[in-house]
Amino acid sequence: MAILGNIIKGIIDLTDTLKSDTNHIEAQQKVLKNLLEKSKNTQFGEAYKFEEVLSSENIEKTFADAVPYFDYNSLNEKWWYKIHENEEDVTWPGNPSYFALSSGTTGKTSKRIPVTDDMISAIKSSGIKQVTSLHNFDLPADFFEKDIMMLGSSTDLQEKDDHLEGEISGISASNIPFWFKGYYKPGEEIAKIEDWDERVQHIAENAKSWDIGALSGIPAWIELMMQKVIEHHNLKNIHEIWPNLQVYTSGGVAFGPYEKSFNALLGKPVTVIDTYLASEGYIATQVRPETNSMQLNTENGIYFEFVPMNPDYINADGSLKQNAPSFTLNEVELDKDYILIISTVSGAWRYLIGDTIAFTDIERAEIKITGRTKFFLNTVGSQLSVNKMDDAIKNLEEEFSTKITEYTICAKRFEDGEFYHSWYLGSEMDADNAKIVETLDNFLKDANKNYKVARSKALKGVKVQVIPVEKFHDWNDSNKKKGGQVKMERVMKEDKFAEWEKFVND
Fold first, then answer.
1. Strand, coil or helix: what is 493?
2. For residue 424, is it within any domain?
């Protein structure tokens, strides 16, 4: 009998029962007041008169009117650079203990995003919320005695001046509670290995000694890890070595495009729980099994605003125009794309995180990620979001009975002077190229009226190349992103796409 598991499950069930339903609008108002109150005496708070904002009748509106939009570049150039010059109380009291390194998907150099002790506490609180929400998934008691494999970037953080630096998954894993360390795999020693391939090799070699009940990490790298374990032990599927694997916590990117290839590595179905942890904070987590939408973490150190997704609001460099309107949680509508704006306990203010979301349940504050502002393909008026591209890829998988785990696209001008959507698909599919093109093109015409109009005007046609998915992994590896918080470039501009094509052809 799973005595410990029953105790843990009982505590989780009791915690969830005692906790009243959150009023997310009130929670957000409280978070904003706390953010402003705590940072009113910082350089940023004094510059934007947070004292006056706090004394206004409508704090949300006054705050939005007083503080401009920022992205990483503008906030770093105007404010965060001071932290690196040892100034204190810049955008948040004191100095951060960590910096999360993130090259994202489009940047050529790593961003250095402050992670304060308050943010570590907020991430832990959101993590506890995720654990207690397991009550809703009706998992057996013995699940709570199994090991949990958390696969992210190295936990061997680098010392720099008076702080530590690393990717957010490594920072989070290095701050796991003491009571969790007995469940945590691959363990601190292996997790510190910097080289991804070496770390995965150690995981494969030790896999038999672990009883894994849950996996957590970005789908592409979890898949590669499982493939390595299966290959190393000559298995048919991952359940032959980890028979008690029941849960996979996805994060970083939408799980949909990976679903088919992921399931092919399993011996039986697992419960998939989506999470949304970014370098800037723990944004959202799935809390119930009836939906794959995620609930915004409205109580834990992040204040959210939402800008309607409109190409007219976005500058050529991907930043937000200052005249773009923003809405609070009590002003949004269902099933509309919004650009996500956050203010946080790490001193990010009205910050463009780069993702677009849509609400599936406003009362529960549940969302789905619909794309990236920089991945919104509108070069020739097609107005394609990543979720529409993902849907098109899923349709190809069904039509051609195949798996397509990675893809990228560019609106490229070819030799004839015309624009084409040039797709690269990571797959082993062996099908007639013209048929692939036709299926892809027709699906997008039916799914998106703007695309259909563009195809009758400036967008001449579609080109598709099918390549081994390993090319995508090698590309990420060459950009020093293998195994980290990677989000493969779904959409590339022509200069970056030229580098990609050269890489593929070489």
1. coil
2. yes
Let me know whether 162 and 191 are in one domain: yes
CA-to-CA distance for 260 and 13, rounded, in angstroms? 32
A 10 A CB-CB count for 136 gives 15
In this model, does residue 51 exceed pLDDT 70? Answer: yes
| Burial grade of 45 (CB within 10 A; 0-12, 13-18, 19 or more) | buried
Domain with 51, as residue range(s), is 1-303+341-371
Same domain, 357 and 436: no
Distant-in-sequence, close-in-space partners of 353: CB < 8 Å, separation ≥ 6: 278, 280, 283, 340, 341, 342
The three-class DSSP label of residue 286 is: coil
Q: Would you say the C-alpha torsion 24, 30, 31, 36 has a positive or negative sign?
A: positive
Buried (b) or exposed (e) across 233-248, using 16+ Cβ within 10 A? eebebbbebbeebbbb
Q: Is residue 323 part of a domain?
A: no
Whether 309 is in a domain gets the answer: no
Two tokens, residue 373 = 């502002």
For residues 148 and 40, membership in a common domain is answered with yes
Give the number of domains in the chain: 2
Q: Indicate if 53 and 201 belong to the same structural domain.
A: yes
Do residues 342 and 304 touch, judged by C-beta distance below 8 A?
yes
Residues 358 and 406 in one domain: no
**Could you tell me the CA-to-CA distances from 174 to 5, 170, 177, 334 in Å, in that order?**
25, 6, 9, 38
- Predicted TM-score of the model (pTM): 0.78
Least trusted range by pLDDT, from 62-66, 223-227, 416-420: 416-420
Give the confidence band of 13 by pLDDT, cuts at 50, 70, 90. Answer: low
**CATH number of the domain to which 471 belongs:** 3.30.300
The answer to whether residues 276 and 391 belong to one domain is no
Residue in the block written with tokens 């790298």: 221
* Residue type, position 392, single letter: A
Our separate counts of H helices and E strands in the chain read 18, 18
Rounded to the nearest 10°, the torsion over CA 445, 449, 451, 454 is 110
* Identity of the residue numbered 122: A
Q: At 242, give phi and psi (nearest 5°).
A: -125, 75
Q: The CATH number of the domain where 223 resides is what?
A: 3.40.50.12780
Two tokens, residue 47:
């510059």
Instruction: Please state the rounded mean pLDDT for residues 301-330.
Output: 89
Residue type for position 167: E
Residues 403 and 447 in one domain: yes
Q: Are residues 76 and 215 in the same domain?
A: yes
Q: Is residue 205 part of a domain?
A: yes
Map tokens 């100034």 to a residue. 87
Q: How far apart are CA 242 and CA 237, in angstroms?
A: 9
